[in-house]
Structure formats: structure tokens, C-alpha cells
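Comment on this:
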Amino acid sequence: MLHVVIMAGGSGTRFWPASRKKRPKQFLQLASDRPLLRLTYERLTPMVPPERIWVVTASSTVELTREILPEMPAENVLGEPVGRDTAACVGFAAEVLRSCDPDAVCLVLPADHVIKDEDEFRRAMSAGVRQVEERGGLLTFGLKPTGPETGFGYLQVGDVNRTIDDYHIHSLSRFVEKPDVATAQDYLDQGDFLWNSGMFAWKAEDLLAEIDRQLPLLAQGLRRIGNAQGTGDQAKVLAEVYPHLPRISVDFGIMEGAALRWTVPVSFRWSDVGSWPALREVLPSDNAGNISRGRTVILDANRNVIVSEGPVISLIGVEDLVVVATPDAVMVVPVDQAQKVKAVVEELENRGWDDVL
């Protein structure tokens, strides 16, 4: 039986000052008038009913998640006491699912992606789910690259195992770190590399078996959490165990060493909306290439990203800037340096300015 797990625990520091600890990126209305988490949920409801959609998020955003997704059972929102990266996140969800459905098949997706071709997205997801249902293993979805992108990890595909609904299911040869431009171009020229989308499918029991084999300390902690489900002590055990789980990503900790792994090349229009300039991929621009949200005045300015959550922002005669204003903070940065926003958040933490974090 298919269950969907939405990973919604990220901090979204690249989207400060709009993204805050109590309202990180996945809860922002970046691509439309609905939060990214809501868009992800609505993309999936044609595939599964609300009672089989689960969200893993920070304990501090459990109530906000329930407000945004009132159709879901409240107990389907799983709160992490602290963030321990994605291996712990997916393992936590798998333990909970196995306790209520030993045969659970999981489609695991980030909360903050924007996908335009939703019918094709669902067809691709269904093909991947069918593969793990019938042949086991762990599967990741790889995006066909459109250029030598250095901001993504890459997957090298192996032989075709079978074809499901026109989607070729490949063995997965290896994962590759984010490359430099020359290496990324080489991958593009070779033609057997995909962007790592961060979307997965597996049986809960298969994932937990791999965690047991590769990450025994994580497995030990997760079993304690799983055994506590339904006993009345689950909150106490979770608070005791979770902060001590190993911090490692699902890619490095589990997928790279998995005994049986697959990938499905997909080509639907997609964006992980990784930083403020990525709004250019999901929002329309004016004739001068400016993207704007909120109350803005733009005069003789080109290729800027402007977002206001209240104050009027006026730009005159400037180019290639990101300007974001909230009621209590303003940020201005050149587009090509927008990745440095994380450093601002670190400096605010160092200064103890928690009121704007």
C-alpha cells in the first residue's frame, strides 16, 4: 500500500529574511498564493488519500503544518525534536509506517519543490513505485540535465532493467558530488548522468534493512522509537533518542552503499527553488527581466528579484539585485552572490539577534 512521506524539516536559511525558524522556506508563498508545502500536498492527493500522506517536520512547525494541511490526520504530522539530516528523517518515517502498515511502500519527496507538469510527475512517480513494489531495492528519480549545473549532485545511470509506462528503470551506478563547471559539462557530454532530485521510493522494510546494515547506530535508535509507537511513551522516547541519532544524509549514508538501487530518468519541469534568484524559474518577469512580489516600484531597472512582505520597495537604475523586505528586516545582495545569505543568518546567530531569526 502506497504512502507518501513529505520531508519538511529544512531551515531555508537562503531565503532569509522571509524564511524564519518558525516559518521556514517550505511554508512560504514563493511560487503562488499557496505555501510550497501545500502545493506539494495537492500534487499528491490524486495518487493517495490524505490518511496515507505523512509530513516530517520540526517540532516547532507541527502546528503550522496542521494548519496548512487540515485535511490530513493530525497524527500524520511527525515532529523531529531536532534536525538530524535526511537519513534520520526517512528512517523515522519508515519506522512509524512499518508499525501501522508492515507492507508500506513509501514515496519520499521534499516539501519545497515546484513542478509544472503534474500529470507527468505522477506518472513517473507511479513507475518508480511499481519498480520497488515488484523488485525491491531503493530508487531515486533523476532529472535529465539541461545544462552544466554546478548546484546539484549527479547520478550516473547503469543498464536498463525494464520499462514501465514508457519510463526506463535503470540500475544506479554511482552518486557524484556537486561538480565544477568543467566536470559538469563533461557529465553532460557523456550523456549518462542525471541531476539528483532528492526524490525516492522504497518499501519501508527495505529502507530499514539497509539502515540496519550500513548505519547500525541509527538503526538502534530508530528501533527504540518504532517500538514505542502506540505505547503512550512515544513522545518521551522520541525526545530522549532523536537528538543522539547520527547526522548524515540519505544519499551518503544509505543510497551510496545500497545493495540494490535504481533510478528513473524524468524530464518534467522542476525547480528546487534553492535561493532567491531561483524565483526566475517559477514566476513571470516583466519586459526588463524583473521578478517582483508585493508592493514594488521599478524604474529603469533590469533583471532584479524584488519581494516585499509589507514595505513599498522602489528600485531605480539598478541591475541584477535581490531585494527582500519584511516588516522587521531588509536584505540587498547581488544576484550572483545570493548563496551568501546563509552567512548573514550565521552572523545574526553570533550576535544573538534571535528576534529576526
In short: DSSP finds ten helices and 17 strands in the chain. The mean pLDDT is 95. The chain has two domains: 2-271, 276-356. The longest strand covers residues 154-164.
